[in-house]
Every structure is written in structure tokens, then in C-alpha cells.
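Tutorial handout. Part one gives the primary structure; part two gives the three-dimensional structure as C-alpha cells.
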Amino acid sequence: MFDYEVPSQLQYKPDPIVLDAKVAEAKDKLLHSIKRSVYVYRVDCGGCNGCEIEIFSTITAVYDAERFGIKVVPSPRHADLLLYTGAMTRSMREPALRAYHAAPDPKIVMSYGACGCTGGIFHDNYCVWGGTDPLLPVDVYVPGCPPSPQATIYGFAVALGLLDQKLHASHHVAPAGEQAPLAFPAIPYKVRSAFEHEAHLMSGYYYGKQIVDEFMLALTKENTDVFAAADRLIADEKDTRKRAVFMDLKNLLASKVVDA
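Part two.
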């Protein structure tokens, strides 16, 4: 014991523990949305054991995935997340299906590693079915040969978000006689289908849908001259690629018009 006071600059002052924003967000999701730990059951369908080494590196002290509340369990009956590693071999097909059906709903299926995602280097082997998705509905893919612990934790974080969505999902049951409203009912069905098909060919399904909806919305706003509406839409568009799609749709519209 010292009989004098140690100067403050010589005293040990531990740094305060500050959680990373992503870690704090994951913990908050577990505490307030999922409200429990998330249990993982691992199924090795026929791999080289490299993925298992990385998984155990992830859940042990260095990377410590348990700080998110993620724990590995020995039975699929306790699992929220089914983690499939290795190529799907003939001998493991039935055990993999049994593990999936034994896990309670809602559940997340994670395809882990290059072999789990695609079959990897064993994809054309005589006893391999491919990856996980030919047999099971995969929610999360974690590629790599093997994936790093950082990629594994990122995959777990994505799985937490999907599990939260499944836990709080709502399902609409349509009553008898309910009908979904048609989009752009003023445009004839065959013309609308032709517009959509052409836009999908030129810009893909997602962006083509946005572009063709904008084009048909402009047409329905004009009650007298649809060609004038199309011309204004083309003139106002600054994106040359999008303008080209609009021009192509206008030409298609002209081919559908029948003079009285």
C-alpha cells in the first residue's frame, strides 16, 4: 500500500466499452423484436469440413457470435435457423429433408459455402444433387470456400432480419367474391400486355415494370390525344436510355391503333 496519493496521470483508466452500431442494432432487434436467442442447427450434407472450421471459429471466443444471442443447438426441433453446408449428396438428401421438416415454423434456411450454394467443385459428381436450393427453400446464401467468420456473422445478421419479418408476418385471406383491382383498366388488355413485354425485353423485369407503368400512367391521364401525351413524356425525359424505351413504346402504340 502506498502512503501517498498516486497522480491521476499514472492511474490506469480502462477505455469505456462502446458497442459498434451494427452490434447494437442486432442486439436491439433480439431484445425488442425477436425477444429471445436464435438457435442454429448445422447440417453437413457432404463437404470437406472447411466450412465447419469457420463456423466454429465464428461462435468461439474470438468472433463470439453468441454476443448476438446466436447459439448452436444439437437438435433441429429447437432450431430457428438451419445451416446447410457441403454439396447435397444422395446419402444426405433424406436426413436434410427430415431436419427441415423437424424444425418448427417460422424458420430460416441458410446455404453456407460454395458447395452449399451451388454444389461447388462437386456439382457434376454422380452422387451430388447440387447445392441446397434444389431441395429446400433457401432464405440466405453465404458464399465462399470457406466463408470467413466476418461473412458468417453478416449472414447471421441478414437471417435475424428475415426471422423478424417471418415472426411478424401477416397473411391476407381473401373473402368470397373479392377481386384484385386491375392496373390501368382503360388500356385494353392485349395492348397493356404488349407494352409490358416490350419494356421487359428492353430494360429487364424490375426497371421495365417501372418504365411501362410510367408510360401507361401518362397515357391514361390524356383523354383526347395519347400520342401527344407520349410525345410530352419523351420530350421531358432526360435519361437517353429511358427515352429510347418510351420511343419504342410509342411506336408500338402506333402499330396497335386502328383508324375508324
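Part three, for discussion. Residues 149-167 form the longest helix (19 residues). The CA atoms of residues 79 and 243 lie 51 Å apart.
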